[in-house]
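Structure tokens please, single chain.
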Amino acid sequence: MSGEPIISKAEIDQFFEHNAEELEAEGTHALSPWIREVARAQVQLYWERLRDIALQVTDTEVHLQLPTQKSPRGRTFGIEGIVDIVREADGRTTMYDVKTHDAQCVRDNTEQYEKQLNVYAHIWTELRGERLDSTAVICTSLPKDVELAYRRGDKKGLAAAMVKWDPIIPIKYDTQRVKATIDEFGAAVDRIEAHDFEPRTVEYLNERTPGTRTKFGVYVCRNCDARYSCRSYQQYAFGSRARSENAVAAYLGDIGDDDTRDEFTIAALEIEPPLGTED
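Here you go.
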């Protein structure tokens, strides 16, 4: 397309390094070289797959705010979100909400994303008076076949997997349902302020998460830092096993699935100083 900005792989690398340095400056520790390379690959593949959409974005990181809402118990709260907007030449406008979630999981749970985008659409159309024709979620999580082909250096397999990868999930929106969603947010605020943090049941943790072949206790709970103090997770992790010394050790040493374990191991090897070099 004439006049279309061209961004090279080298420029993407520069943007990535700049952002990585900023994240490290804001955090408490540096990214290990291996984790940094995995993140760089995801950015490059994401750009390759969604380049056409990215170049169409006319409003990036649009902050949407809905302040001074009232919870069922009278607490004041606000709702904030960040979206990208594409205004096309024919006048159509699309709102994109970027998520790190798995695309299939989003497809199988669209009602959860409809609620959030309904509120954003309400702010955009009713409060800002802007046109909106459609909304969608963009999932940045790499599909397993893309990630596997990349790690193996399988160029042919990667090309085929990239063609199948569809990270854009259209989401219906109906601003008539906004009030019910805001009420749900308000009820959540009341529970948080009341320190009502009742966990999911053990039965729920054993159910398969829609869009995945993984139980909720693995897909979600293993990413929760509070899982070791959660009674439901304790019962889920031990199950019917006896609380032997080996079972307790396995429970306390559970840092996730095989991929997560590999990441921790490799990252630790890369940042561990050689023996005898400590001050």
